[in-house]
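Document type: protein sequence-to-structure record

Subject area: structural biology

Format: plain text, a pair of labelled lines:
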Amino acid sequence: MQFTDFVPQISSWQDVLAWFAYNPKEPLLFNSARFLKLFVVFYGIYLLLRNTFRLRIFYVIAFSLYFYQQSSGFYFLLLLFTTSLDYTVSYFLYRETDTFRRKLYVWFSVVVNLSFLAYFKYTNFLIGSYNDLFGGSFDFQDIILPVGISFYTFQSISYTIEIYRKEITPAKSFPDYVFFVSFFPQLVAGPIVRAKDFIPKIYEKLHISREEVNYGLFLIIGGLIKKAVISDYISINFVDRVFDAPNSYTAFENLMATYGYTLQIYCDFSGYSDMAIGIALLLGFELPPNFRTPYKSSSITEFWRRWHISLSTWLKDFLYISVGGNRKGTFAGFLFPSLFFFGLILWGVTYGPDSNLPFILSLGATLLFILTFVLSKNKEKTMYTNSNLMTTMLLGGLWHGASLRFIIWGALHGMALSVHKIFLEFFPSKKNSKTTVGSAIWKVFSVILTFHFVAFCWIFFRAKDFTTALDVINNIGKVTFEPEKWQTIALGYKNVFLLMLIGYVWHFLPEGFTQFMKQAFNKTPLVLKAVILGLAYWLVYATASAGPQPFIYFQF
């Protein structure tokens, strides 16, 4: 392999322009050979600039903007507009002493940012809803969602709010703020980085230790295998096919596709996060962990402490607490649950002439939610808490997409969190208690129950529409114990099922084993590490059924 393999050849001005040409069918992805080549060249120059400050900042900004331009086209201009707006607003906000004007500044920033987000994510949803409800005839707009807009918007909003709350001081200069928002490892799919954690690191003396490089490479290799080998393979060769036409497949295949997607979305998203954190470590920056083996959780509350940690923390700090948290009730905190349950009952009544089941389910869900605070010892406080929790999860579902299925997904998790809270009130967990046979069995049962609830919710998340989700659920309900038929199906998908087995075993490995692999990798010579990384990329292309696949969360 020669240096010319990494650096494009220049023979004309058109060759230079071609570097900046955006191809929506081939966006720049971490799991592509093109990114590997670009990063090798970028990293070599970065190391040469490591003892500089301002030049290194501008260099990383330039590469980050190029990375985003190659991922989302001219929408990198929107990214620059967002950073310019929030930096300017925050500059005046920090120096303002009048309470009313401070609120005006922060609301202006939030409203403008969310307006852009709403336009790209919800315009067609609102048009469709209006046409359905009022018989309108508005045409749908041809709107392309900029990659990662939700992530950098939330990150930029948090900066303004933290300055408003006087939790941080502003970045020292505009380039420093652009560096924070556009930092390419986490730009398009997180982890969502808080300004108070990241910005101070910009001004620290850059130090890239051997341990950081080792751990960074370890995470990149693991993330690459999770995303490009396990997630992409089972998606293209099994999961996508079943969810596209669930009624064309057996009940057992529908069940296994649900297990497959449960693993796919974890490997896809945590794989990206691992690569992002690993690349950041190579640059001398430590990003917060985003996943902690979430399917090991023994409750839905624990699941949300392990799954997409940066988003769940953001929602807690900037949404849940803002609408009242566990302290008080607010109009917004009661509005969204009320609208949801009203709509749910209305749906049940609408389908009443055809079947009583929708009405029974909608009424049952409403009564169950009411019972979560009626049965509580502190009814008022629990009502506030559960209503605000439900609001957070409903809006969290809507954040993922303007669709009924995402709202249902959020509502199911909100209901589960509320039920778990009342369960703990009657059956509090005993801390520091000795492990007994009974407690071990209960732990295993709790993990299995939580896992299957989460997998059930993923059906709504993955299905292309609500009807398809119900088809999958209905088909799974027809599963019967037929070992011979199961074996025949398993042999037909032997590679898919083998990768699913490897993925789940990997996920449920004890933490000690993961630490052992990390330590063994640390002791491996640098040359061998490079060989392992090369083998990982070879494995990606050896198992690829198509080109590099975009990450699932790019669409959010």
User: Anything to note?
Assistant: Residues 207-291+439-555 form one domain. The chain has a mean pLDDT of 88.
